[in-house]
Design goal:
The chain folds into four domains: about 90 residues; about 100 residues, Serine Threonine Protein Phosphatase 5, Tetratricopeptide repeat (Alpha Horseshoe), CATH 1.25.40; about 90 residues, Tetratricopeptide repeat domain (Serine Threonine Protein Phosphatase 5, Tetratricopeptide repeat); about 55 residues, no CATH class. The protein is built from 22 helices and no strands. The protein has about 450 residues and is mainly α. It is elongated and about 145 Å long.
């Protein structure tokens, strides 16, 4: 109803702009007889000037004057006899007043879509992405070029990945999922690709996290337990299955890991409030953001001397350690503390922080590997691995037999003990999970060649 009223007002404004000038009375313009009389009077004045200056004799002047006066009288008679002409402006105005709205209605009924609801541009993320990238034409051109390249080289994982993303940008979800499947096959289920594949499956299902999408997100988390995309959609899937409290808890944990200026926090807040309302729960306040330096602090740090900057970093790390002592249940906080101590070169403290995180997340192989690496003397893999580190790596391998770092270090530990067949076994398994033609794969292949025959 509101749309119809707006269209009616717009149409009336346009018709008024065109019609009203035509409805005004026309001022009479000069008639042809009036024009002729002005010419003849001018001729009489010119004739009098010529006669007074002696340029024409009196007889010729009299004859010319009579002829001009005769024509002047004839012009007066023609004006009196001219019939009045009807003004067609009013007829034209009425015709336009009827024709313009009728034409507008017919065109809108043929081309318009009055039943389609409005969608704010802020929610049309795909459209904005295409606009930034040059629109549909640019994305279509890119996709076409990639398809041609893949016909010649169908084992190029990077091109399959680019094709999948291009087709997703065009909203071709089914074609995008097929391209993602090829990229996954060629990269041995790379976690980030698995997460993108799951997201595309959800988009193809109108936002529903299907069982196939859930499996893809599970594969992503197996290789990268902190994958944000996978964790977000798995929580969404839980909400869609009616597990609102579990979804809110998962989103709160994700929000706690994001910095204060992260756009994801606003989206998480909206999701939590929606799910809480639908589940009849009280919407909790969004979890506090992950601690970190503000933009002003970062700019100030850039102007510091190296010694002052190191002192500032150490102060921040100590502050995080004090906070974690008061709240030891923050697994991500212990992970950040472990990485911070690692950067500072305090590897014992780093390993201790990772141990705290591992107790909170005993199934997270990422934490077990990080703790094992912190236990390596000076972080050098060529030095014999301590027994505690090997024990942690074996736990990680048990939880995930395809964990790349665990397979590498366990193979290294076996080679250091001259158990070359065992080392070769670990590294052969590692080859199967590494991307083809990657530098890591080449290094592992060279390591296998180095121990063969020993």
């Amino acid at each position: 109803m509101l749309l119809a009223a707006a269209l009616a007002v717009t149409c009336l404004a346009v018709v008024a702009t065109v019609v009203l000038p035509l409805m005004k009375p026309r001022l009479p313009g000069p008639e042809r007889a009036a024009f002729d009389r002005a010419v003849y009077r001018d001729q009489l004045r010119a004739l009098e000037r010529d006669a007074s200056r002696g340029l024409i004799d009196a007889g010729d002047a009299a004859g010319a004057r009579l002829e001009i006066e005769r024509r002047l009288l004839a012009a007066d008679a023609a004006e009196d006899e001219a019939p009045a002409q009807a003004d067609g402006s009013a007829v034209l105005a009425v015709s336009l007043a009827l024709a313009v709205p009728a034409a507008a209605v017919l065109i809108y009924l043929a081309l318009g879509a009055p039943g389609v609801p409005d969608q704010p541009y802020a929610e049309r993320a795909q459209e904005r992405a295409l606009a930034a990238a040059g629109g549909d034409a640019a994305a279509e051109k890119t996709a076409a070029a990639l398809e041609q390249r893949l016909k010649a080289n169908p084992d190029n994982a990077e091109d399959w990945l680019l094709l999948a993303r291009s087709e997703a940008a065009l909203g071709l979800w089914q074609k995008s999922t097929e391209a993602y499947r090829q990229a996954l096959r060629l990269t041995q289920d790379r976690p980030d690709i698995a997460a993108d594949y799951g997201e595309t499956l959800a988009m193809a299902a109108d936002g529903i996290v299907t069982p196939e999408a859930r499996a893809a997100f599970g594969a992503a988390l197996a290789g990268d337990p902190g994958n944000v995309v996978a964790r977000f959609y798995l929580a969404l899937g839980a909400a869609q299955e009616g597990h609102g409290a579990a979804a809110i808890a998962a989103w709160q944990a994700l929000a706690a890991e994001q910095p204060a200026d992260s756009p994801l926090r606003a989206e998480l807040k909206r999701r939590i409030e929606d799910v809480a309302r639908e589940a009849g729960l009280a919407a909790p306040a969004l979890a506090a953001p992950a601690p970190g330096p503000s933009e002003a602090q970062q700019e100030a740090a850039a102007r510091m001397t190296p010694e002052a900057r190191q002192q500032m970093i150490r102060g921040m790390v100590e502050g995080l350690a004090v906070r974690l002592e008061a709240d030891p249940s923050d697994a991500e906080g212990w992970l950040r503390l472990g990485r911070a101590y690692d950067v500072l070169g305090e590897r014992d403290k780093s390993a201790a922080a990772y141990e705290h995180a591992a107790k909170l997340r005993p199934e997270d192989t990422r934490i077990l590997v990080a703790e094992a690496e912190a236990l390596l003397p000076e972080g050098k893999p060529e030095t014999a691995l301590p027994e505690q580190a090997v024990s942690l790596l074996k736990r990680a391998e048990t939880l995930d037999p395809k964990q790349p770092a665990a397979l590498w270090y366990l193979g290294l530990a076996a080679a250091q003990q001259r158990h070359f067949a065992e080392a070769s076994g670990y590294w052969q398994r590692l080859l199967a999970v590494l991307p083809p033609e990657s530098e890591q794969r080449q290094a592992v292949a060279e390591a296998i060649q180095a121990i063969q025959g020993k």
